[in-house]
């Protein structure tokens, strides 16, 4: 994969925009948002899965009774969240996408950025969230499931290869943490708590030239110990190991990115 350009150092003041009290919960939906909501309702009602086709534009215009502009805007709202994708050209059309906490993270990063939230705050949230996920995974009452999901990481084989490509490394690393979060049995935690790590991973992949992969072997060993603690059902140990593991990742990230971590979290 091609390496992206190093992101410019942000000059936005760290103060940011004060976080509002939440009055927007009462904001009425715009026409495009109503369309987006109705499309999502239909996806759910029909039990559609990633890759399934949605109706054509002509059919949706008839079904939802809105202008072409509102329909397209509504679909676009879902497209940027990855929840649908739109194949352009003849034979194209909207298809069902994925539910990916990375897209949630991208949205959250915008909020952190404008609110002036710092990388220290992001890392603190990440440590808290992933330690909690590890504890919940280890205390999942289904021991057979814990063993089945963690089994690939117990030998270390799955992560044995040294990756030259940062993005390949990051997706492998995220794979382990995603597997842990999947064992929590709580999809709200899985989505929201994983998003912090996804924000960090996205930042690393965007700035590039990070040598986290130099410590790949050590980090894979951490995963092995974590996987064992989860299989053993040891919540306290899993939580502590995860905290220590990510503290190390954060230390490396600080060392590699240096001044890029000053100021508010970037929206990259
Ligand atoms: Zn890790």
TrEMBL record:
According to its UniProt entry, this protein's organism is: Rhodococcus pyridinivorans KG-16
* UniProt cross-references to SUPFAM superfamilies, sorted A to Z: GntR ligand-binding domain-like, Winged helix' DNA-binding domain
Give all residue intervals belonging to the HTH gntR-type domain.
29-99
What's the superkingdom here? Bacteria
Q: What is this protein called?
A: GntR family transcriptional regulator
Pfam families, alphabetized: FCD (PF07729), GntR (PF00392)
Looking up InterPro entries in the UniProt record yields: GntR_C (IPR011711), TF_FadR/GntR_C (IPR008920), Tscrpt_reg_HTH_GntR (IPR000524), WH-like_DNA-bd_sf (IPR036388), WH_DNA-bd_sf (IPR036390)
Q: Name one GO molecular function term.
A: DNA binding
Which UniProt keywords are present, listed alphabetically? Answer: DNA-binding, Transcription, Transcription regulation
Which PANTHER family does the record match to this protein?
TRANSCRIPTIONAL REGULATOR, GNTR FAMILY, UXU OPERON TRANSCRIPTIONAL REGULATOR
